[in-house]
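Training component of the fellowship. As part of building independent skills, the fellow (R.M.) carried out the full modelling exercise for a liganded target. The chosen ligand was adenosine-5'-diphosphate. The inputs are recorded below so that the supervisory panel can assess the work.
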Amino acid sequence: MNHKRFSEFGLSDEVLKALFDMGFEEPTPIQKIAVGPALKGRDLIGLAQTGTGKTAAFGIPIVEKGRRSKGKFPYAVVLAPTRELAVQVAQELNRIGRNKGVISVPIYGGQSIERQIKSLQKGVDAVVGTPGRVIDHIQRGTLNLGGISIVVLDEADEMLNMGFIDDIERILKETPKERQTMLFSATMPEEIVRIARKYMRDPERVFVDPKKLVVTKITQVFYEVREEDKIKALTRLLDVEDPSLTLVFCHTKREVDEVSGKLQQMGYSAGAIHGDFTQSFRDEMMEKFRKGETDILVATDVAARGLDIPDVSHVINYSIPQNPDGYIHRIGRTGRAGKSGIAITFVTPREYRQLRLIEKSAKTTIRKAKLPTKDEVKRAREKELMEDVEGVIAGNGHDFYVSLAEALLSRHEPKDVVAAALSLAAGGSDPEDIEESLGTGIPSGAGMVRLFLTLGKKDKIRVGDLVKSISAEANIPGRKIGKITLFDAFSFVEVPAHLADRVISALNDVVMHGRKIRVQPAEPVKKKKK
Ligand code: ADP
Ligand code: MG
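Fellow's submitted model of the complex:
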């Protein structure tokens, strides 16, 4: 039976109130078909794209089955692929379980195990953990799964991709046979089907047609771009589309470093996450992105797995996903909970076949679109600048400069004064100069040039270290090295133009602080995006 409203599931007042407080007005499609059987204790396979509300689909039944008289051991265990996801799921369970007093705790690698042991000892109802850390606790004897009556495998396909399959089987074997097992996944690879056969009893299969979800809510387009033009294409789109929050996906950690670095350098508010960053750095980055302090997040697939970021308006596949499942996962980061979203994929001429393959298996259509022209970018930038200036006038934020304006106006033509001020505000860049200023090599003239290095504060490097390493590797005197600016993931180093090539070839691919670094000429500073 398909229920239309939460109240029709026969849920307790406590849970209904919690859902109401969370702003859940009606069940999502997967919740409509999954909550009923799950409440009855059926094993369940839920197949639905990300962002469709799977957490509550199993979270509501878990909370409803919460015991009032607390035992010492948890009765539910949810396995999730990443630490971020474990935290998110535990949060959602705690929100749903608030009025019922059902307590969920996330257990994941990277956090002090002692802290987790303490919270486990206090007594918890549901454990949400990454498979590796759950095994760790089982081995230490700090987590007893003997009292488990519900097991959930969340994002099962991702856990498989991350190599957790053996861990999952081990954990399943630790739990009582009479348990209820629920498996949620966006896709069903063979290995997951095998797990389901082996460990589930006559599971009810519920699924939401991905075609319906993807096509209606997410506008999908692709741009044909050559590899070397991608950054240019990206910034043009960012300028013209004016997204609220953008998630940019790259293949590799290095590509993430490069793309985020270049964007920052061009004045965009961009952050990066990938597996090489410390957990606390990733957390900080995510928080900034969530709050909108950073409006572009560049990530690898692994780092972005399962993240629920409410307002991503644009997902940009800077590199085409390696397979159709990857595509579905990535674009599922936008169009969350019924909102609309835009998914953009960059395709090099050689990748056309792969694009068609993705379209076919994801049963979707990805429309070809044309990149904004220079003119359109120019107009978009002008519009933004105009809005900024008018905003300052409207907000009376310019009192301070009025007498200076009068002084300038007494000496120059008004239009020259305004144009010069605008040029300053725009970061001194010539708005026409979009294509040419990118990807050019080192200027031939004398003076200093800036180099871009994929090594930064997070590698625990200091300015002094960098000077020493560069002068040693490139065999140039330290005093010839100019200004060094350290950022988290990368840095800029000024060197004399005539030595730039030498520094680049000496440092490229050299291992520093345990990491192979890349050096290249920095892009000229461009437009500031607020
Ligand atoms: P999935 O696990 O399918 O990727 P999530 O469970 O993370 O999706 O849900 C995506 C977002 O939708 C979350 O922010 C969640 O709080 C919200 N959500 C889930 N169910 C509902 C609902 N019934 N009404 C409104 N928002 C919902
Ligand atoms: Mg989920």
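The panel noted the following from the submitted structure. The chain has a mean pLDDT of 84. The first strand starts at residue 44 and ends at 47.
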